[in-house]
Task: structure prediction
Amino acid sequence: MHLFILSAKNMHSYTLVYNLVNTYGIDSTKLKFIFYDAQSENDLESNLGNFNILFADDLTNPDIYRDIQTVTITSLHSFNAKVIYDLIHLKLITYNQLIIRITDDEVERWHNLYQANGRLTVDNKSLVDKYTLDILAKVSKFICLYDPWGRLLEETLGRRLTIYNINMITNKYLNNNIQDCFKNEISTSILRQLQLQNTVRILVFTKPKPFELFQEGILPDLKNFILNNSESLNSRTLEIAFFAPLGVRVIPKLFSTILVLNMLARYKKVRLKTTLLNDMPREVYFSYLYSTHIIIAQDRGGLGGIYEAAVGGSLIVVKKDSLNSNVLSNLDGLKYIEYDNKVGPISESIQLLSDRRFEDLKKELSEKMEVTLKENLGKSNETFSLIYS
Result:
């Protein structure tokens, strides 16, 4: 029997529970899930169905732990570290049983602390407390891609670790029927709509990022493209979309940037549309990802959105030698291009698309990603079976 100790407030908890069984084929009768910050099903954000679900009142019940082989948690930070620390000191679980499914957020925070101080230290901003430090000093098993996250983790902790090298690409809808409907019906409608709109849609970053990253990393190439390379649009409208930046102080910069872009576009007779995105339901968000021709990925994180866009046939553009570039290189068959200070993200990607019919290439990229996902699933299934057999 294998136990998972999860947070009801973390959206990744629900995708983990669903996909372990429905995507990776783990026998659900061998799994238990405790939501340590929920009192009942009413506190859960999604209906998980027929799983062995337990709640906070069950956390210290010794009977739950009698037949447990492994204890898995998703992420480690100051919100859950004391829960795990207390269970270990109550001798309900051991460090040898503990497995942490780590995310890029934690690894970056810990590695930044390590680089700044030469070691890990308590740091509230980094969500590292004394319980986090104690656990990290003794735990040795992690689920993540070895390159780059496992490698950085070993550097940060100063020792060799057991890294279960899994690139966990999941069904985001928590329902196979919804996923099949989206793939077979809705995505086809989206492609037809794009063709009728005669638009090239570029999404800059798959989640909100500081506006300075857009200004410094993307805007110069966008201006250059409008002034010097816009003929590769082949008379199509160029739509640039990104998440609306937060904070009142950013508003003047935002609107002045949009104004300058519109003036340049009018001068060069380019049809330009700027779209600001806000928080949206996950189904709406993934629908939007499917409707993009090009995703300019952030340097780190947001891989769930990047993968989903790739499934829909979006061309992924990522900065050379970034952490996300490193991660994507582990997926054989995934089509993506890299940019650097000499080759801009917009000019390069649109030029590639302009040589083909946009929708034909989008369909081709989607089909290649399907093959890539099946290969990745096979590798992940083997590793998960070893852990949770």
